[in-house]
Amino acid sequence: MSQELISIILPVHNQADHIADVVAEYEQALAQIHRPHELLLVANNCRDNTWQVCQQLAQDHPQVRPFYTPQGGWGLSVKLGLREARGDLICYTNSARTTGQDLTLLLLYAIVWPKVVIKANRKIRESWRRRLGSLVYNLECRALFDLSVWDINGTPKVFPRQFSSLLELEQDGDLIDLEFAARCRRQGYPVLEVPIFSSRRHGGKSTTGLRSAFKMYWGAWKLRGAPALRDRNPAGP
């Protein structure tokens, strides 16, 4: 068990000014776990020199593996990382918002509970509009997919490789987190939400606006009919 590899997938978009600080913070925090790990930096549709910085980080840190895609999209980047991940325990998270402390906290939960999906439940939003929009979206998703989780998009998300359905996610955009939760429900994977109260951003601003929010509301409704989410398998692992 002590030699099991942890894969951490970090989508990176226009983060040349701070991704090196993120990696340094994560490396310092992960050293406390005493397990081998890899950081998969997935640079996507970057308009700055993020890709060059990621390549340099791979030379400076043997645990870093950089990947590049000219296409943008949170889901697409996560899927690329899932395909390349070698670990027995797999995590993906928002590299702009996740602190090293929060990352290691959820990984430790996952190590103690090896057959449970561990995910963050972020308690603090930037504004009342974000809080209201998040509440509406989460209530919609709970109703449509009979979910018990309260923060659909909350990351980090950590799961064991044996939960193979989570390696087959299909959504290219933000709806991948809803698909993740719905697959857990349909396959009977137990989920534990860990409350996270940190609000610090490493850099950048949220891209979620009114238009993108309504797009997600409508997308959640359409996703209900996806074949992979239609039937629940009661004989999950």
Describe the protein in words.
This protein is α/β, with parallel strands linked by helices and 237 residues long. The protein has a single domain, classed as Spore Coat Polysaccharide Biosynthesis Protein SpsA, Chain A, CATH 3.90.550.10. Helix content is 40%, strand content 17%. The protein has helices at 19-30, 50-60, 74-84, 100-112, 128-145, 176-187, 210-223, 227-230; strands spanning 6-12, 37-44, 64-69, 89-92, 117-122, 157-160, 191-196. Strands 3-2-1-4-6-5-7 form a 7-stranded mixed beta sheet, sandwiched between helices. Helix 1 runs parallel beside helix 4 (100-112) and helix 5 (128-145) runs parallel beside helix 7 (210-223). It is globular, with a radius of gyration of 17 Å. It starts with 5 loop residues before the first strand and ends in a 7-residue tail after the last helix. The model is unreliable at 233-237 (pLDDT under 50).
Features of the shown structure:
seven-stranded mixed beta sheet; 17% strand; Spore Coat Polysaccharide Biosynthesis Protein SpsA, Chain A; disordered C terminus; 237 residues; globular
Write the topology of this structure.
Layout: E1 6-12, H1 19-30, E2 37-44, H2 50-60, E3 64-69, H3 74-84, E4 89-92, H4 100-112, E5 117-122, H5 128-145, E6 157-160, H6 176-187, E7 191-196, H7 210-223, H8 227-230
Parallel strand pairs: 1-2, 1-4, 2-3, 5-7
Antiparallel strand pairs: 4-6, 5-6
Helix pairs in contact: 1-4, 5-7
